């Protein structure tokens, strides 16, 4: 039989993985059809999920997820931004409602900061630090004030 008639499992698996990486840049989040990013997490020892909110940037949704997973699973949890979790303070009540509230607070703050600084929803490739990079217009001619000649 000729192998051209079917789809090879390795190429379709690689395509699905590539598509999933584009659709889900961080753990615990997904993108809605209309462009909003949502975060949710499965509660330990339960089949139910904890809704963490809807955000306009994937970074905000990922930070909300990180907050919830840190309080649910402890310091050994796999986080999207391990360096940022210490900034969020300490939560005394570890109920699902208080974890959800803290996670949505963190996500909303990050979302507001992202919108305020006008940062894009996607960080530059290879960078997850949350820094904002301003891309110059390469089609614009430099002004005489900005030239290197003195």
Topology (SSEs and partners):
Elements: H1 9-23, E1 29-31, E2 37-42, E3 49-55, H2 58-73, H3 96-117
Antiparallel strand pairs: 1-2, 2-3
Q: How would you describe this protein?
A:
By secondary structure, the chain is of the alpha+beta class. It has helices at 9-23, 58-73, 96-117, and strands spanning 29-31, 37-42, 49-55. The longest helix is centred in the C-terminal third of the chain and has 22 residues, at 96-117. The N and C termini lie far apart (73 Å). The model is unreliable at 3-8 and 120-133 (pLDDT under 50).
Task: Give me a quick take on this structure.
This protein has 150 residues and is an alpha+beta fold. It has helices at residues 9-23, 58-73, 96-117; strands at 29-31, 37-42, 49-55.
Keywords summarizing the entry:
150 residues; alpha+beta; 3-stranded antiparallel β-sheet; 35% helix; 11% strand; globular; disordered N terminus
By DSSP, the count of extended strands is 3
Report low-confidence residues grouped into runs of 5 or more.
3-8, 120-133
Lateral arrangement of strands in the main beta sheet = 1-2-3
The major β-sheet equals: 3 strands, antiparallel
Number of helices: 3
Separation of the first and last Cα atoms: 73 Å
Give me the Rg, rounded: 20 Å
């Amino acid at each position: 039989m000729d192998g051209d008639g079917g789809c090879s499992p390795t190429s379709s698996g690689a395509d699905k993985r590539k598509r999933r990486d584009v659709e889900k840049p961080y753990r615990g989040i997904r993108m809605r059809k209309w462009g909003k990013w949502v975060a949710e997490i499965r509660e330990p020892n339960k089949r139910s999920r904890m809704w963490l909110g809807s955000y306009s940037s994937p970074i905000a949704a990922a930070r909300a997820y990180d907050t919830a997973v840190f309080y649910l699973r402890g310091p050994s949890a796999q986080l999207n931004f391990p360096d940022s979790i210490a900034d969020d303070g300490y939560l005394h009540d570890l109920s699902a409602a208080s974890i959800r509230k803290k996670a949505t607070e963190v996500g909303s703050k990050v979302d507001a900061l992202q919108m305020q600084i006008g940062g894009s929803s996607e960080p530059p490739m290879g960078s997850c630090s949350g820094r904002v990079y301003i891309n110059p217009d390469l089609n614009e001619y430099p002004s005489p004030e900005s030239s290197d000649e003195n």
